Amino acid sequence: MRLIQITDCHLHAEAWARSRVGYPLRQLRAVIERAGALRPDVVLVSGDVSQDETVASYRLADEAFSSLGCFWSWFPGNHDQPRLMHELHEIDTEVDLGAWRLLILDSRVDGQAYGALGEAQLERLAQCLEEDDRPSLLAMHHPPVSIGSEWMDAIGLMDREAFWDAVTPYPQVRGVLCGHIHQALALRQGEVMVYGCPATTDQFLGGSPAFAVDEASRPGLRVVDMHGQRLSTWIERVEP
């Protein structure tokens, strides 16, 4: 089973719109072309699909992801409008990966850059894990760990300790996929790895105390292969 994560597209209604250092739609299309060549079973889009929160931007995204010809799922980030997304393509909370499963959490907080899961959602997550002991991947937009970047950590997942309290009793949790940080990341929290993914648009400079764009890094995606009880993952980058 091969899952490909794509994240932080930040599309505008205008196909030719420019970001700080590139053209978001052109870069997304380059990433999708590479994703298709890697023959995924599932593509996961982990938030901040839009920059301007317009119907037109989501239509561009829907067209691009649908061109892959495989199952794909998206969920909102702090820049997104979930209602507009859902009208075009369903927002899933769980994806059956055969011997594995993917549980998707909504960390978006209306009107805020930071994220939170909330007590009710964490209770539902624990119940899901209690009912099924298959190896599981969790996904959310905001990282549930400190990434060592002061400005980004201030807008990460605010209830990260409660999240780890909820999942630590369940050894079937094999990894957490997140977006939001616009950079590759692999950090261990206890027995669980947390993986960040390059954006399809601008990359952020890792370890920077203040906001900074990494102009040397390229757009990319994360590949996750699940073999039996084991997981392997790596980053692929493209020329924008």
UniProtKB/TrEMBL annotation:
Stretches of the chain forming a coiled coil according to its record: none
Transmembrane parts of this sequence: none
Keywords, sorted A to Z: Hydrolase, Iron, Metal-binding
InterPro entries: Calcineurin-like_PHP, CNP_phosphodiesterase-III, Metallo-depent_PP-like
Pfam families attached to this UniProt entry: Metallophos (PF00149)
Sequence ranges assigned to domain Calcineurin-like phosphoesterase in this UniProt record: 1-183
UniProt keyword Metal-binding present: yes
Gene Ontology molecular functions: hydrolase activity; metal ion binding
Family: Belongs to the cyclic nucleotide phosphodiesterase class-III family.
This protein's name: Icc protein
Organism: Modicisalibacter ilicicola DSM 19980
